[in-house]
Design a protein that fits this description.
CATH superfamily of one domain: Tetratricopeptide repeat domain
Radius of gyration: 52 Å
Length: 741
């Protein structure tokens, strides 16, 4: 059988191919089950919007014929049933998913549209992003993938016409305002949902919105082509552009999108152009794509009421607010647009406001700055001319009226002119002097300003250098702290390793010294684990079947020998507690249940022997150290009291009451239970003319006489700080040699 050949590009085709694999066209693919084209039947007589939608939904051009279940080919796992449409970007097929048993709309991109890896990656990425959208007015995207070199999107199949097909069959190619507001409101809610998830459609137009009729007869608009947005319409004036600068349809494209900056406000502008077309039956601008883009960038949108006067004024205001040139002048979001349409539907006042004459003039002036400037200059010139003419007319009339009076006074003026000339000469000389002084002052002021500017510049330079030095200093300090912290971490790691090494060699005290020298905020799990292992190191020897009768250490302390009523003797490792089955009982004299170094003790417990580490624990070492510190501080406190008492007595002999009071106050703070100190301080305070404090000290002394303490406590000491390393502390002894005597 001779293979088929594509009539467009000449590629070889097979019977299973649904489209040419090279040019992706279906015109040259033979279809043995093809039937004659049937004309489109659209109801134009009823004038009912719902009837038109229902008629278009049952159109043979939209619903597959009886033979549509024949498989034309496969793309991926999808069975191609028929072609629904073709555009500049790709082809739309009606397909069947046998895996999930459902019909889908399969959008296949043409190879030339995805000629670069960047375009192909963007195609897949944006389609997968659109697959996350779940909204009743957004068509569901099921899959975005590739079958070899063929990239496709599988989405839900909507059995309904697009809005542009409905418009073609409506009187005047427009919809009633009520249905228009309902459709635009639902599309605005769908766009608001998509924008909240960071997805911009970039190609809102009637061809990308389908009308689906539900089972109860309700009509729901469904927004399509998320992630693709590149299918064209009939006519060169509506071709979707896909270049390096923008993507969209020129007839509905926002000004900022034409400059390559598509954002959520751009979708609102395109939706406003769709709103405009549904109300008036035509797009805001016509002509070739370049002319349309230029008009969107520079020309105002024509008033919808000039085309269709019956349009409600509030709907016109909402529509014109959506298509403002500046994104900031539009609604803040599509959600606010939907809310304003709801207010109109419920009969409430809308939030959008029409521009007055001043606002319109300002917008016109921004669009035509040259003409506006010229008009303003003409108006200013006319105003100035009229003002000057009026002024000179009044002056001429006044001059004529005073002419006779001036003529009568001319002789007197001539007589006075000589005097005037003399006075003028004098005033001219004074004026020249004044002007020279003023000029000198102006020059001085200019020089002062220049000097001030120079000083200000130098000051700014100095401040900049200081700030940079401060930043460098902060950076150096931060780096120093980081290096110090890293050094502390390495030191902590080394100390923990040293502690483990000492513990493994049996030096428990030195291991605890290494642990306690670790920085407290770096102590982690390994620190606490090793500390517990060191402080709780003991084990139990189990292996006899009868009661143990004897236990002894070897002379070198490395082994433990046990004897039992089961007539066996066993040798154990004294360090690990492991049984040494092949070891021989030493011939030397055994040392008993305590190791030669006194660190370990073996205790018989029935048929087992528990080996206990008798070396002091960390708590005991801390207590010993705390006791030594307390004794040392007590001796220092006693010496301080001795020294202050001697200094106070010397001051009392010299009648230096201020020094005596100072030392006595410190003595009272160290030991408040000494009676003579309160009595002596009361006398000193009385000498210093401080009677109230003297009375207080006297009362304390009387209280001590009435109920003397049974035991005079040691001088008051501050709480001890946390214990440090367990190394022996060598204190400096400031006490005299025979102080304790």
């Amino acid at each position: 059988m001779t293979p088929n050949v594509c009539a467009k590009c000449g590629a070889t085709l097979t019977a299973a191919d649904a489209a040419c694999p090279q040019c992706m066209t279906t015109d040259a693919v033979p279809n043995p089950n093809a039937t004659a084209d049937r004309p489109e039947t659209v109801s134009l007589q009823t004038g009912s919007f719902a009837a038109s939608v229902s008629t278009l939904s049952s159109d043979p051009g939209q619903t597959p014929p009886k033979h549509s279940r024949d498989i034309l080919g496969h793309i991926g796992r999808y069975e191609i049933r028929e072609q629904l449409g073709e555009g500049a970007f790709g082809i739309v097929f009606r397909a069947f998913d046998p895996q999930l048993s459902r019909e889908v709309a399969l959008k296949v991109a043409k190879p030339e549209q995805l000629s670069t890896p960047e375009r192909r990656a963007r195609f897949i990425r944006e389609a997968r992003s659109a697959a996350n959208l779940r909204h009743p007015n957004i068509v569901q995207v099921f899959e975005a993938s590739q079958d070899g070199e063929t990239a496709f999107i599988a989405q839900g199949f909507i059995d309904g016409p697009s809005i542009d097909r409905v418009l073609k069959n409506q009187p005047g190619k427009r919809l009633p305002p009520v249905q228009t507001a309902a459709i635009i409101r639902k599309l605005a809610e769908a766009l608001a949902y998509a924008h909240q998830r960071g997805i911009v459609h970039r190609d809102i137009k009637p061809a990308n919105a389908l009308l689906e009729t539900s089972e109860n007869g309700a009509i729901e608009p469904v927004l399509t082509d998320f992630g693709l947005a590149a299918f064209s319409e009939e006519g060169a004036e509506r071709i979707t552009q896909d270049g390096t600068k923008f993507m969209g349809t020129p007839a509905y494209m926002a000004p900022e999108q034409a400059h390559g900056n598509a954002e959520p406000a751009s979708d609102q502008y395109s939706l406003g152009c769709t709103f405009y077309e549904l109300l008036t039956g035509q797009t805001p601008f016509g002509g070739p794509p370049s002319v349309q883009i230029a008009n969107h960038l520079s020309q105002p949108i024509p008033s919808p009421r000039r085309i269709v006067p019956s349009i409600p004024r509030d709907l016109e205001t909402i529509c014109l607010k959506c298509v403002e040139k500046e994104p900031s002048a539009r609604y803040a979001s599509c959600a606010e647009l939907a809310e304003d349409l709801r207010r109109w539907q419920d009969g409430e006042p809308v939030l959008a406001r029409r521009l007055g004459y001043v606002g319109r003039f300002v917008k016109w002036a921004k669009r035509n700055p040259g003409i506006a400037a010229s008009l303003l200059m003409v108006m200013v010139a006319l105003a100035l001319g009229a003002g000057f003419a009026t002024r000179y007319g009044i002056r001429a009339e006044l001059a004529r009226q005073s002419e006779e009076k001036v003529a009568g006074e001319l002789k007197t003026a001539l007589k006075d002119s000589e005097n005037a000339r003399n006075a003028e000469a004098k005033i001219s000389g004074e004026l020249k002097t004044t002007l020279s002084v003023s000029e000198q002052r102006r020059i001085d002021a200019v020089n002062a300003r220049n000097a001030e500017s120079k000083i200000s510049g130098e000051l700014k330079t100095t401040l900049g250098v200081s700030e940079q030095r401060a930043k460098d200093l902060k950076k150096s300090l931060r780096e120093s702290k980081e290096r110090l912290y890293l050094a502390d971490e390495r030191l902590y790691t080394a100390r923990v390793q040293n502690a483990q090494t000492e513990w493994e060699h049996g030096n428990k005290a030195l291991a605890l010294v290494h642990l306690d020298s670790c920085r407290w905020d770096l102590r982690g799990w390994e620190y606490h684990y090793l500390q517990n292992q060191i402080e709780q190191s003991h084990f139990t020897l189990k292996g006899h079947t009868s009661a143990v009768t004897s236990v002894s250490f070897s002379p070198d302390g490395t082994r433990i020998v046990t004897g039992s009523d089961d007539n066996t003797a066993k040798v154990w490792d004294a360090r690990t507690g492991e049984l040494l089955p092949d070891a021989m009982v030493p011939n030397q004299l055994l040392k008993g249940p305590i190791s030669p170094d006194g660190h370990l003790e073996a205790v018989i417990e029935g048929i087992a022997v528990r080996v206990i580490d008798r070396r002091p624990t960390a708590l005991e070492l801390r207590r010993e150290e705390a006791e030594r510190r307390r004794e040392h501080l007590t001796r220092i406190a006693r010496f301080d009291a001795f020294w202050h008492d001697r200094m106070a007595r010397d001051a009392e002999k010299l009648n230096d009451h201020f020094a005596a009071e100072f030392h006595l106050r410190l003595l009272v703070e160290h030991a408040p239970d000494y009676l003579d100190r309160h009595e002596r301080r009361a006398k000193v305070l009385q000498s210093l003319n401080r009677p109230l404090e003297a009375v207080a000290e006297t009362k304390i002394a009387e209280g001590l006489k009435a109920s003397p303490p049974e035991l005079i406590e040691a001088p008051h000491l501050e709480p001890l700080p946390p214990p440090g390393p367990r190394a022996k502390i060598k204190f400096f002894n400031p006490l005299p040699p025979n102080f304790d005597d």
